[in-house]
Write a structure and sequence with these properties.
72% helix, single chain, 2 domains, Four Helix Bundle (Hemerythrin (Met), subunit A)
Length: 120
C-alpha cells in the first residue's frame, strides 16, 4: 500500500474516531437521565427502560468500534496496517475501503465465519 492510501485511511479513521467521541460527549452531557417520577404509569417507565437498554447496547458497539479504530491507527503508525493478522498477506484496498478496521483478508475472514457457523 502506498503512502497516499495510508494517508487517506488515517484521515478516514481519525474522522470516524472523532465522530464517535463527539457522540459519547453528547451522551455524557445529559441525554440519558431518567427520573422515575417523570413517568405516570408502568408502560411509560418500561418503554423508557427499553430505550435506555437499546442506547446502552449502541454505546457498547460504538466503544468496540472505537477500540478497533484506535488499533488500526496504531497499525498505520507502526507500518503494519493492511496486513492480515492470520496469514500475514496484504488485505485488499477494496476491503479496507469498505471496512477500514478490517484485521483479516477476505479469505481468512470467510474461513473464520464458516467455522463460527459450524459451531453454532
Amino acid at each position: 500500500m502506498n503512502k497516499r492510501d495510508m494517508s487517506k485511511f488515517k484521515k478516514l479513521l481519525t474522522e470516524q474516531r472523532d465522530d464517535l467521541m463527539g457522540n459519547a460527549r453528547r451522551a455524557l452531557s445529559g441525554d440519558i437521565h431518567v427520573d422515575p417520577d417523570d413517568f405516570p404509569d408502568e408502560m411509560d417507565s418500561a418503554s423508557s427502560e427499553v430505550n435506555l437498554q437499546f442506547t446502552g447496547r449502541l454505546r457498547e458497539r460504538e466503544q468496540g468500534l472505537l477500540s478497533k479504530i484506535e488499533a488500526a491507527l496504531e497499525k498505520i503508525e507502526d507500518g503494519s496496517f493492511g496486513e492480515c493478522r492470520v496469514c500475514g498477506e496484504t488485505i485488499g484496498v477494496k476491503r479496507l475501503k469498505a471496512r477500514p478496521v478490517a484485521e483479516m483478508c477476505i479469505e481468512c475472514k470467510s474461513d473464520q465465519e464458516q467455522i463460527e457457523r459450524r459451531r453454532g
